[in-house]
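Two records follow; treat each independently.
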Amino acid sequence: MLVFPCSSEPSTTTMLSHQQQLRLLLSILVLLSPRLPVRSTPADIVQRFHDPEVKRMNHLVVDKNTGRVYVGAVNRLYQLSPDLSLVVKEVTGPKGDSTACSMIDCPRETPTRLVDNVNKALVIDYTTTRLISCGSLSQGTCRVRNLHNISDVVQEVKEAVVANNATASTVAFIAPGPPNPPVSQVMYVGVTFTGNSPYRSEVPAVSSRSLDKDRMLNIAEAAVTTGTRMYVNSLSRERYPINYVYGFSSGGFSYFMTTQMKNTDTAVFISKLVRVCHDDEHYYSYTEIPINCTNDGTYYNLVQAAYVGKAGSVLAGDLGITAQDDVLFAVFSESNSTNSDVPKNHSALCVYSLKAIRRKFMTNIQKCFSGEGHRGLEYISPSHKCILTVVVSKASSRRSLRASSFRTRLENRGLNQEKEKNPLEKLLDARLRWIYSRYFISSFSLTNFRDGKKGFASHEYGSMSFFATDTQVVSWRHKA
């Protein structure tokens, strides 16, 4: 294994912050495109956009069809042309608000104060040509906007969807989901529990939300006790925060990358992959596994940023996959101390094939069907020993096995491997390596990288790349 190290050492001239180092590392990845085998220099920068009024930029998305750029910031929402000229600026805050106010209104007797509206989610729905923007005000509600003119609010959604403060994490993305995937699309949302309002208990930790106009951002499928949602139970949610870092879809599943405690009794933080099937209307398939990133005895336990893309031919060959297979690139850091979720100034880039990830999930599920291990996560549902389950099926495909778990109503909320010997050795095999220019990464972009204080995003459109920092958007043209 090889590690891509990123550490800060004292210097007589300058010292890069931990986040600056992460940005540098990820910027290098952005440059490793088949169209850009050489590094970009300041002379290559085509245009910059900066608004002196903005406190912080949080999200950036680029319309893959038109090249329009959309930026979500604190109290601002921007629509830019492909050359970063300002087209529309929407002021979204500050506004009078209180955590005692509901999503719909605020009683007259409730004292309010001016509160910043922090953009928590910015997603393009290509099926309806709409932009979904969600802010921290009004319990984390969203608005659906015209993609051609964001000042045109098509629909206001009076539903608590995202985090309702500036620091709690939210990850949102659109992918196939119930009732009829891959035709039907839903918005997957992962949200950290804030606990600052009585209304927050109604917000799931992970959910699939409808994009139908009449049910916009409601839970896609809901029954009395099940649905496309997952809650951290009331006994654990105050003391067991889950930080959502990244979300993506691949091979019939949707995934979230998180940092969280190893269990409710041990304040040791690890990173996890959360997975749910696209066609699961009840979230019976909800499963978590730890994701490991180590090198020479150093355990990089906190995922900081990630992206799923395609590998070039050399990297694909090295991973034993094809150039069309999905690959997960993730940057991890060490904890500042054993019981801390604050990262050290040391980072590593880990590369995983999605094929290997799917195999690990399936291996764990098959072990549970064989009676090995435990099912259930104590912060979601009680943990029970796996029961030997005989699957009667004409086919032995992954889909038939998954369907069988639904029929037996196995509440597979995650596979508890705490009692296994040397559990770290059985986690995902993190294949760490230097990323040289020969390891070309196709169409690399990184979105929604935040550490609670800063914002980072990068996107490509045609021959242009767009990079967002806290206060500006920069575009540059790829060299031939």
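The next record belongs to a different protein.
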Amino acid sequence: MNRFFKFLLVGCSALAINTYGQTPYTDPNNQEGWVLNPEVSDEFKSGSLDKDKWIVQGENDHFENKFKGRAPSQFAPHAVSVENNELVITTRWEPGYEFMKGKHQGHKFENITTGAIISKKKFKHGYMEIRCKAADGPLSSAFWFTGKGGELDIFEIFGKYPKDKHHEKVYHTSFHDWSKNPKDPLFGKTSWDNKVQLPFRLAEDYHVYGCEWNEDFMKIFIDGHLVRQITREELGDKWVMNNEQKVWVDNEVFPWKVNPKKEDIPAEGLKFHIDYVRVWQKDSGMASSSQLIEQNNLLANGSFEDGLEGWETTGKVKLMTKKGSFDGSNHIKLAAGSEATATLHMKLKPNTTYVLSAYARLPNSDEKTIYDNGWLGVKNYGAGQQPIIKYFKNDWYRQSILFTTGKNANDTMIYFTNKWKKNEVRVDHFELVESPSFQETHIKTK
């Protein structure tokens, strides 16, 4: 049995003995004083869905927020069930289903039924957690929240993504801004997102996803590990979580990313398994007790303010000092048509989980017909494959890799490369931090 799955079994066993809603997975001793909100939480152990708590999208022809599904798929009540003490949302190929007329974003509703549940009650601020196994197919399983003016998607997981297998390991969190005029081109668009490349396919097994949200910041977790924290101050007007939220759990099709065909969906359907949904909050006396976790950047010259000191370069790598940096005065340009790579050698702790991040932009990418892609990577860390995450956008944006070192990580190589590419890439603000675990375990690399 590999090391990651040993970790998973230990984590699941610990979770199994934790009574219903006792504590968040990342706060087993409840030092923060969390109190379960049962109106927006469920263990799904009663044999059927609690209709006093949940709206089933499409039941009695009611569609919350007038959202009928992302065509070609349509939300159908029979896609939602409780089986073996779990909520199960099943996406099926059902061309004989009586689909609605009309289109959604240019696509007809046809062939594919899927499901969603939405909480009847709202809440503001808290710790949201789900233990689940995403559907292992070419669609998105999601745990998300909507309220006046804003939306938080804790995750949208693609079980299979034929265009890029690395995407099947990405933990993607995002904000969407619904506060603008509906005619504004940014209405409902992503105002901020966070992508973390993990050392496993997310749809292969159950994982515990958590998010702490308060007035000033948000923390994102997986299996007890902190993967990102972000403040309202950092995001400015991109922060959209200002009001009460409803809970959503669903499967959706994203036809512009991958459009499932009949052969992609087995006869029994693609199933999203949810063990529980839990939301904790704090009473007024404890509301201000949460703090950001101190994380120090272990890279001494991650923003190139000391030029290329400490960095090893191959190909055409140029220090840019005049304008256009994400952070500070300097950044680097990796030229096109060369072996352009910047590498930093690090001695890391053994058996320790880290998050490596960098900001990059690809000036010639239009994200429609031109998809340049430089990539961030790490190797020689003593365990597993060499993880990478690709960059496509023409604005500065941040992506990350979570990895766990083996017994020997004395010459770990952190790098960004533009090998074999036709256009340049700009890179800035590398960051390497330890990813603290709140279960006294580490995510193991397969």
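Discussion point: The chain has two domains: 3-281, 312-434. How would you locate this feature using only the token line?
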